[in-house]
Amino acid sequence: MTLALILACNLDADDTGNKDGADEAASSCDRVETSLPLDEVTPLGFAAAEVWAWLEGTHSTSFSLVEDESERDVAITVDSLGTATWVDLEPAESSGGIEPAIDEVCADSLEIDGTIDFVVSDGTFDEEWTVALSVDQVAAASARLEVALDGLSGSYTVPGGMTDGCDTSNFVFEMGFSQGGGPSGELMLWCEGSDGDVAWAGQDLLGSWGEGESE
Predict the structure, then answer these.
(1) Please, which pLDDT band fits residue 21 given cuts at 50, 70 and 90?
(2) Using CA atoms, how far apart are residues 186 and 175, in angstroms rounded to an integer?
(3) CB count, 10 Å around CB of 134?
(4) Residues near 81 by Cβ (< 8 Å), separated by ≥ 6?
(5) Can you give 9-77 as a three-state secondary structure string?
(6) Cβ contact 11:194 at 8 Å
(7) How far apart are CA 115 and CA 123, in angstroms?
(8) In this structure, which of 10, 16, 149, 184 has its CB flanked by the most CB atoms within 10 Å?
(9) Do 140 and 177 form a contact (C-beta atoms < 8 A)?
(10) Is the pTM of this model over 0.90?
(11) What's the average model confidence in pLDDT over 23-49?
């Protein structure tokens, strides 16, 4: 399996006797959530209702799998659940533990709750999820979903051998929507494993879908 990203850490005990010190590197941002009505204007200058005005409905484009490169049609239907959350991220005070290796940007955002139907024309995917879509500008939204390998309703299965050596693995769907530009995204396989006292994790591209027209 060829991994697009590999992260490794030593599993030997650190000076405190703990295993895998990397697990203790928490987010460098504190998260405070506030429920909002859809029509309330956020600090970003727009309300969730303005996003739903263009986002709700069916977005269609082409979908392809890396394994065969043939194109299929995909219809992605987004419906509102009528709730929204303002997410205020602030730099966290240091706890004196292990700090993240990369500085994290603490950017506030709006999350809007909805459902997504992800249906590919040949039946490989026929999914329905409840999601929180992240919004930081009025004309764009995104969502990231982690799905168990046995959690799909469609016929798709991971090509043979791709999970060899993985202790744990799952699908990751990265979705983007833009006003007037249609949907785009990637389907990836996330895999974690270990080799002796070294733990590793990585992801491999399985499929993608591109810009399309919204109905």
Answers:
(1) very low
(2) 7
(3) 15
(4) 113, 114, 115, 130
(5) EECCCCCCCCCCHHHHCCCCEEEEEEEECCCCECCCCCEHHHHHHHHCEEEEEEEEECCCCCEEEEEEE
(6) yes
(7) 19
(8) 184
(9) yes
(10) no
(11) 86
**To the nearest whole percent, how much of the chain has pLDDT over 70?**
80
Other C-beta atoms closer than 10 Å to the C-beta of 63 total 27
- In 121-164, the DSSP E strands lie at 126-137, 140-148
CA angle 191, 166, 203 (to 5 degrees): 20
Q: Which pair of structure tokens corresponds to residue 131?
A: 């999601």
How many Å separate Cα 78 from the centre of its chain?
16
Tokens of 190: 């996330």
What is the C-alpha separation between 10 and 208, in angstroms, rounded? Answer: 33
Contact 199, 1 (CB under 8 A): no
Both tokens of residue 163? 């999970």
